[in-house]
Amino acid sequence: LCPFCYNTLKQAEKLYSTKPDIYRRVVEYLKDEVEPYMGGLRVAHFVEVLYESRSDLSKLARRRLSGLKVAVYYGCMLLRPKAVALDNPDKPVLVESILRELGAEPVDYPLKSYCCGSFHSILEPSIVARNTGKIARAIVDSGASIVVTPCPLCLSNLRKYTDLRAMHLSELIAHALGVLELPLQALQG
């Protein structure tokens, strides 16, 4: 799931499980279109799944990420609102924990959850240029070799508006598992 879809589904699941009147209205509205949702499903982002299985992931790794200084950029939608946040919005650590298990060296920096500008890239690209510029300066100052993000839109904005070496978290995980070959040797200390 992209962070926007995760956020929307997580909020809907929370509403359905805590507000029966809303659940009934949605079921009534959709009754001719789909089978009613009976509840009981867990909405989970792939970061949660990776975090929960990080020690198994480490055992499956074919390549260690030793010496790779990684800045994790969460973006805003996985961490807000707090009611459905994947991690602590002020000090997220889930992705860093996953990467440490694979041998990487996550770096700390401010603005990990600062909004990149999101869909403003369509109508107000200056907002995205400004926001990603701030994020990029913080990442460069951290000494990171690379930035990873679990958000496809954040990745697109970082690639379009900055010179950072940026990749999706799934790409780095796939590299560690031996599924994808990335030219990272030069970046590993």
Annotated CATH architecture: 3-Layer(aba) Sandwich
Question: What is CATH's topology name?
Answer: Rossmann fold
Please describe the biggest sheet, giving its number of strands, its sense, and whether it closes into a barrel. Answer: 4 strands, parallel
Instruction: List the strand order in the largest sheet.
Output: 2-1-3-4
Question: What is the helix content?
Answer: 40-55%
Q: What percent strand?
A: 5-15%
Average pLDDT rating: 93
- Counted up, domains total 1
CATH class bucket: Alpha Beta
Total DSSP E strands: 4
* pLDDT < 50 runs, ≥5 residues: none
Shape: globular
* Cα-based radius of gyration, to the nearest Å: 18 Å
Distance, first to last CA = 32 Å
Number of H- or I-type helical stretches: 9
Structural class: alpha/beta
Order of helices and strands: HHHHEHEHHEHEH
3D architecture notes:
The protein has helices at residues 3-18, 20-30, 46-52, 54-60, 94-101, 120-123, 125-142, 152-161, 169-177; strands spanning 69-72, 105-107, 146-149, 166-168. The protein is globular, with a radius of gyration of 18 Å. The protein starts with a helix and ends in a 12-residue tail after the last helix. Helix 3 (46-52) packs across helix 5. The longest helix has 18 residues, at 125-142. Helix content is 48%, strand content 7%. By secondary structure, the protein is α/β, with parallel strands linked by helices. The mean pLDDT is 93. Strands 2-1-3-4 form a four-stranded parallel β-sheet, sandwiched between helices. It has one domain (46-184): Rossmann fold (3-Layer(aba) Sandwich). The chain is built from nine helices and four strands; from the N terminus they run H-H-H-H-E-H-E-H-H-E-H-E-H.
